[in-house]
Design a protein that fits this description.
The chain is α/β, with parallel strands linked by helices. The protein is built from 18 helices and 9 strands.
Length: about 400
């Protein structure tokens, strides 16, 4: 049992009464080598308390349980966010992130480029933790796998983001004669939780226990050493990453790391996890407006689960009919297929909007009267539509 694991056995009052040096030693041991036993209630709150008292900085906080974040944001007044390292306004990054969460093509690529640039620089540094990871994996004949948030037919932003990252970083690794990253897709068998970004820390932990990601068990790690990298688009409460860490290390993973383009100040996030929803909504609000229409109309757009909830939720039911002509018809067909593939027809709050969209697509000739996709249909200036 690690020292940090042992502090959970005692009361937090006793721990916090210990000297600063003792608390820092507990923190540093855990940060240096994550353990599945360290994922217990109160651990992140303990580290956040050290941050609040100025004993560690935000960069050090992120390192607990194997984390790395490129930018750390602190929410300010009037819905603004600031870079915790520089103190500067981070409005531009917050806007990029907000659009990316709903599938903004250029915005996801921007975040991917930031992550790729970071990893390229790390791999060029012979002393970095990332260089050590891949060199050790090569020496031992181990594998390095990337896991992102679980998905059920429709990807999240994190799934799309790290597909791009893994593909680009594997080119670098191959040229360095190092093991390439294996992209492992975590399935989600239960229907995904609605409004996850607005849930409290306790509610998130309950969701993660009952209906989140299906994580590989012991057999996955049996035949080769496996090092796990977990990629997400933001670190808020850490509930998802901590579950993946706990299950991976318990089942036999040799190491665990987590990577994020953005992290949110835990002194806010751990007491009000809805701050994630405020970040998501910096640009893309809960309205069907011109900003969303432009995002959906961008070349290369693909359906994102969060967008399906926004477009087909009951809150926008009255506005949907007027919004439909503002987005290319092939995009609506893709969104319709994605929604049905994710069982949105079984959700009472989404059913009326999907019935409306189906009628619209039938009128355009993209669906037949039975609701089946019509193959090879020319759609205005969009050319020939090739659908499944």
């Amino acid at each position: 049992m690690t020292l940090l694991s042992s502090i959970v056995v005692r009361s937090w009052t006793e721990v916090l009464q210990a000297s600063d040096d003792v608390q820092l030693e507990l923190f540093r041991q855990a940060a240096a080598r994550p353990s599945s036993g360290d994922v217990k209630p109160g651990f992140r709150a303990f580290a956040a308390d050290l941050l609040e008292r100025g004993l560690i900085d935000m960069g050090e906080y992120v390192t607990i349980l194997g984390g790395t974040a490129l930018v750390c944001l602190k929410p300010g007044p009037h819905g603004r966010f600031h870079d915790m390292r520089t103190g500067h306004d981070a409005g531009e990054l917050a806007a990029i992130y907000s659009r990316a969460k709903y599938g903004g093509v250029d915005d996801i690529r921007y975040l991917a480029r930031c992550l790729v640039d970071y990893l390229y620089a790390e791999l060029d540094d012979p002393c970095s933790q990332w260089t050590a990871l891949f060199q050790d994996a090569k020496a031992c004949g181990d594998c390095v796998v990337m896991m992102t948030t679980g998905w059920r037919n429709v990807p999240s932003t994190a799934n799309v983001l790290y597909d791009i990252v893994v593909e680009a970083v594997n080119l670098k690794l191959a040229h360095l004669a190092l093991p390439t990253i294996i992209n492992v897709k975590l399935p989600r068998l239960a229907p995904p939780c609605e409004h996850y970004a607005s849930l409290s820390l306790e509610e998130r932990e309950q969701v993660n226990l009952m209906q989140d990601h299906v994580i590989p068990s012991e057999n996955f790690y049996r035949w080769s050493g496996v090092h796990v990298i977990f990629g997400d688009d933001v670190l808020v409460t850490g509930s998802t990453a901590d579950k993946v860490l706990q299950e991976s290390l318990r089942n036999g993973a040799k190491s665990f790391r987590a990577l994020y383009p953005v992290a949110i100040d835990p002194r806010v996030a751990l007491t009000d996890a809805t701050v994630e929803d405020r970040l998501n909504s910096v640009v893309i609000t809960h309205q069907l407006d011109g900003t969303l229409a432009r995002l959906l109309s961008a070349p290369g757009y693909q359906p994102i689960l969060r967008t399906l909830r926004l477009v087909f939720g009951e809150g926008n039911r009255e506005e949907l009919a007027a919004f439909l002509p503002k987005v290319p018809a092939p995009v609506w067909l893709d969104l319709y297929k994605a929604a049905l593939g994710n069982e949105f027809l079984a959700q009472a709050r989404c059913l009326p909007s999907l019935v409306l969209l189906r009628s619209y697509l039938v009128r355009l000739g993209l669906l037949d009267a039975a609701g089946r996709v019509v193959l090879g249909v020319a759609v205005g200036t969009e050319g020939v539509l090739n659908c499944l």
